[in-house]
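Self-study notes.
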Amino acid sequence: MSLKFAFLACALAALSLAVSRPACARESLRVVAWDGYADADIVAEFERRFNADVEVTYVNSDDDLWDKINGNNGGEYDVFAVNTAELQRYIDKRLSVAIDINAIGNHARQLPRFQHLEAIPGLVRDGKVYAIPYAYSEMGLIYNRREVKNIPQSMAEMWNPEYRGRVLAYNTSNHNFSIAGLLLGSGNPFRLSDAEFSLAAKQLVKLRRNVLTFYTSPEEAVKLFSGNKIALVFGNYGTQQVKALKEAGADIGYVIPREGALAWLDCWAVSRGAKNRKLAEMWINYMLEKKASDRLTAGHGLANTVTLFPTSRRNDKIIWLEPVENPAKRKALWDRIMSGETLAAF
């Protein structure tokens, strides 16, 4: 073969190889999220803007999330949404990695209460940031405008004899003991002493006397509210629950008590198994844009970390959830309370 033809053959082979390759390879991102956190149009915009393919896997419980991220040591996913209380075990097992806060430029746009990450329990460890706040909901107090004369100022109103049989509370051990501890003046409602446990249990027995029933879902609460002369509701699902009640035609108000309201805070975190950490951080930064954040509020009734929720005030006292001292003990005591044991038993 002549030199000329050899050169031509090589050129054609190179051209064929170039054509067989994509002009610009697309990155891929594997996201684990809760329903409403990654709506299709929001995902499509990210894919277009960053030339990436996004695969979203939805979870419906903390246990489900743990199984997915913990499986294969986090190697199957890149970025995931997790609340601050749950985040700790991911950090402990090194399933999540530190985030470069300098890559999250939209953090500067977040509301003041989210500007100082060190002030939010669980986000920073050993000077490293492990998650960026995204969505939250307080567990405030919902009141029936037709049944309550004055706007309640404290969660203690649920114990008011005036509302006996007209209170809806949530069937949970952890939150109820934390609320009781908060009202008793505990220094840390998530870390009750033995003496505080006893006092809190007695308070919850008294609450049981005032409650019509303990609901387990927002839908159940709406039905109970609609079918009874309910005065007060402990809003375990917060603003989502307010939205559902209002859509059902309930004339309600919603307040953050003066002692503060427990609140969960969901954040974006990066998995140890992330194939492209920079793309994962781009996702986090993108989700803090106004369009994505406002979708949480308008479409799903959740408060976001960029724009103030319509019913919120900047000085509302919010107490972010933390891991509790003894979940098993709280559950055992709560089961006794629900079974009907009297004050003397505690």
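Second protein, same conventions, sequence then structure:
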Amino acid sequence: MSVDIAGLMPESPYIWRARRPGHARRLICFPHAGAGAGAYAEWSGWLPRDVELVAVQLPGRQNRIAEEPFTDVRPLVNVLVHALRPVLNGPFAFFGHSCGAALAYELAQALRPRGHQGPEQMFLSAQPAPDQTGIRPLHNLPDEEFRVEMIRLGGIDPEILADEDVMGSLMAVLRADFTLWERHRLVSGPSLACPITVLAGRSDPRAPVGTLDAWKALTTARFDTRLYEGGHFYFQERIAEVVGFIGDRTLNPVTDGGTR
């Protein structure tokens, strides 16, 4: 597959996009804790040319580092319902990793009751289904213990680990995100009408395999899971494989043959 390196560029405070004129479908991605839209910068190169990539940018990171992050999920979802309207036309799919998956789910639940088109399908990565319990909370740990746990989860570039000033800023954003989502109770809402695909690492301590199948009760459409060797950031060592799968499924939705 030839790699298209079209850039992911800011278009508004909340929207970064790698524009592809004439695209057939759009993939809208929600970042994990501590991350910004730039976490998806490489993805456009591994997506089919007919899939346009959009990444959501939240306050408190990258070009919005000076802004205060949200402290409550409800106003965040309310803002996104309006802020993402320019990219919620035509067929689109949602992808979210970890707390980004929780945000994608909350937004999908909010769209249709407000008269907006919902996602054609959902890709939820490394996130337990609503109402699952037994995941150790991390947001209230002492600073050094919190730092150790964040490093243990992975996903932090070696260059950042080596820079104490950057690490200090990152830890503040990570703690804010973990506080936001660990205090928020993700609950089962009305079943969605779109297929749900759950992706996870087999040894992920934040999304144990046994917490994933309950997502299938939250769709009236197709449900399936894809498990990979690895932990919370299982996809980092197999970006071409994982993004290739997501892109192919986005471009060619499968509505039957899965489990319900």
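Instructor comment on the second fold: The beta strands are 9-10, 15-18, 25-30, 51-56, 92-97, 121-125, 196-201, 223-228.
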